[in-house]
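Mods, move this if it's the wrong board.
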Amino acid sequence: MTLVATDSTVSTLPKPELLKEEQAQKFVLTLSCVERAGIVQAVTTFLYERGFNIEEHQQFDDGLRQTLHLRTAFSGPLSYSPERLEEEFGAIAERFEMKFSFHDKTKKRVLVMVSKFGHCLNDLIFRWRGGSLGGDLVVVASNHETHRAMAEAAGLPFVYIPVTPDTKADAEQQLLDLVEEYNVDLVVLARYMQVLSDDLCRSLEGRAINIHHSFLPGFKGARPYHQAYDRGVKLVGATAHYVTADLDEGPIIEQEVIRVDHSYGPTTLSTVGQDAEALALSRAVRWHCEHRVLLDQTSTVVFR
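Not the wrong board. Structure tokens:
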């Protein structure tokens, strides 16, 4: 659609020339700031004056925290880049004390880390090859050789990084080297069964996603599905969240829950749990890659 500003001082501006779809490039603006009047008008007027077409707009006004979160997808002149948009938007951002970013439609480059369980890796590869993941898988790293064939069959480089208590620091440095070598935007822990150090978590803050099972009540430690069976759980679930130094307590992006009953043994519960993990993780990866996830302190705002 072509946006028509409602402010009387703007409505007299000449209508921007419409661009053919193949001539327009696409961007996404995400921002968060203290809630106040005039924010949305300032954003839409900024885009209108530069000849941009708004294609999708979502916002959330958090009345409890008195903050506004916004995601706007738009397209327009080829002469613009995210850097130019950020520079020209600076005065508005300063006026409203915004935390903001402009993104182009370049796909995020994703590094997947995996251990012995391959269901999440397999699902990510399937969605990536089908074009529905939202990002591009570029490399797989693992502390086991188990899934080398799966990765290489998909045309992905597979890097074996063994981890022992004595080599943990070197292994984490190899991971950071991979992030730099492959120009990685997002690290996905697809059932990677190693606890990352606090330093590595800080280095990957906001660009690493983990998946773990989640039961009601919660079972930790070894053989969680056997514990779940012993307690007669009725729900099996999974949680995808950003990685932080607090183990499995980072801001939650997505959760999936599947109802079960007394007939589900430990093996069946594990299979159902793997389905939940794959679904929650793939959604979290796609939403992050499409700039639909905004961090808000210890939680997230997700524009689906």
